[in-house]
Amino acid sequence: MTAGIDVSGLSSTVRAQDDLYRYANGPWLEQHEIPADKAIYGAFHALWDTAEQTVRTIVEKTAAAEHPEGSEARKIGDLYTSFMDEETIERLGAGPIADELALVAGVQDQAGFVAALGQLELQGVGGVFHYWVDADAKKSDEYVVYVTQGGLSLPDESYYREDTFAEIRAAFVEHVARMLELAGIADPAGAAERILALETRLAANHWDRVKDRDVTQTYNKLDRAALGELTPGLDWSVWLSNAGVPESAFEQLVVREPDFLTAAAAALQEVELDHWKEWLSWRVVHNAAPLLSSAFVTENFDFFGRKLTGAPELRERWKRGLGAVESALGEAVGQLYVAEYFPPVAKARMVELVGNLVEAYRQRIEALDWMSPETRQRALDKLGLFTPKIGYPDKWKDYSKLEVRADDLVGNVRRSVAVETERDLDKLGQPVDRDEWKMTPQTVNAYYNPRMNEIVFPAGILQPPFFDLDADDSVNYGAIGAVIGHEIGHGFDDQGSKYDGDGNLSEWWTDADRAAFEERANKLVEQYNVLEPAEAPGHQVNGALTLGENIGDLGGLSIAHTAYEISLGGAEPPVIDGLTGWQRFFLSWAGAWSTKTREAEVIRRLALDPHSPPEFRCNAVVRNIDAFHRAFEVSESDKMWLAEESRVRIW
């Protein structure tokens, strides 16, 4: 068993009592540079790099070997080969999208335009709105279609209206003009201005990200007749038939932002058809740009990479090729990954960790002093229905319908979209598949799915620094334990808590308990609203946007601490390298967030990312936890001190 904390990596100039984040990560922050092809880099990203190298080995070995025609291994190899075949891609230029651009150019009227929107949707070119199939949030044992707002090229509706982003908008117009010129579109400069104007109109009716994360407001179930009343003038039958969507799929659907659809339908009537055609041509070019010749790839990266995120260099071609393979054949790659890199002992250890975390939640819920017995019992019932998924799915996706050709990159990607669309639509009318995973096993991440009431931990994240079979328990509980707790915590955050144990939106709280919860949540919003990342002074965290993740962090770390206590069975943890078990626990948490971010990327994430910047995921959370103050003997004179009456305690 190893200590798991490298004391040589701790700062000699910063105290944990003043800044836990920089005490744990100061030397790393000083010594490391962000790789040129990244806008952000840290512990998570280093693990992503490791997983990426592993997947590269798998995919390149697969591509180099002979496999039967139609086999998944052959498809993996051929798709990767098609991405790496630069000679063919350069020779084709904009050729792979010629038919799509001709389709748009040939549109004569609004009906033709709606038909084109549908046809291109089936090929992965996003239109004015998006749709997908998922479990119904009020009937979680049935599937339903969800429809949501779309039509924007910039990261968020705020980019179209805030003065902060005026420079971005000007650069966007220049970028669109250059891309349209590469594609041979007439009057590229004028078209680019008109495209910005059209998207600005759409953006004016987009729900902002705070409103859009409200699961109650975004659940608006309609039948087909009500959808028609909501969008006068929009012929849904034309769109459905061309998008390959059966009429029956839209008999009942959930519209997330109804007034956006109304505004979009009006825009389709009122904006000149030629302006819409320019916009749709741009959508075709933008969607395919990463798959086309170097002129398109470079220009696309110059704006969406260098300008928006600050990353100075394009990712190497093999990395982008892996992304294409994993997008189309992720679970096929995942089967090869887990067979070689995920031992059964790791899964067994995770089952034990999850069990302790769930027990810790049970104990803490039972001890809550602000919740009534009635709501407390319902919370415990929900906890008892949690389903953990660890490592990889029990049932793998079938890719037999996907045709892959080694000389047709764009076609491969388009056909993949069509196959996944068919897979999605085939769910309608079928029992909800509770074995389905929404991440591949090689993904370095985790998630909570409220409609399934499940927590999912792919094999990719179950590695150091988050999970180490040889490390002291304090380190594993401070890292992967807190991640597990975080994901469980999403079931009890400001939005997840609106779902019951069966995954249905349900009022299982008393009014008084909900008010007590919101009072505590609002204090957390206030705490985060005043925080400014060191990389972007003058720019503040949006406490309302990040509330769910902040509750997840606070609850997750608190619960992980209790679970660590449970694992000790009453024994006192050993002191290793001068650090107590409790100190190693919090240092492990802090080390998981070691991150450097470019200023442009910080600003972009503040506008749209529901997660707080990494330094606050560390410091802002631990200041609210009594055990942290005890572990490091934090006093009123220390910068990390937070008065007891100001500490937020939810779960």
From TrEMBL:
Domain Peptidase M13 C-terminal: 445-648
Peptidase M13 N-terminal domain span: 17-393
CDD domains: M13
Single annotated GO MF: metalloendopeptidase activity
Keywords assigned: Hydrolase, Metal-binding, Metalloprotease, Protease, Zinc
One Gene Ontology biological process: protein processing
Keyword ATP-binding: no
Cofactor: Zn(2+)
InterPro entries in UniProt: MetalloPept_cat_dom_sf, Peptidase_M13, Peptidase_M13_C, Peptidase_M13_dom_2, Peptidase_M13_N
Keyword rRNA-binding in record: no
Gene Ontology cellular component list: plasma membrane
Signal peptide: none
Family label: Belongs to the peptidase M13 family.
Protein name: Putative endopeptidase
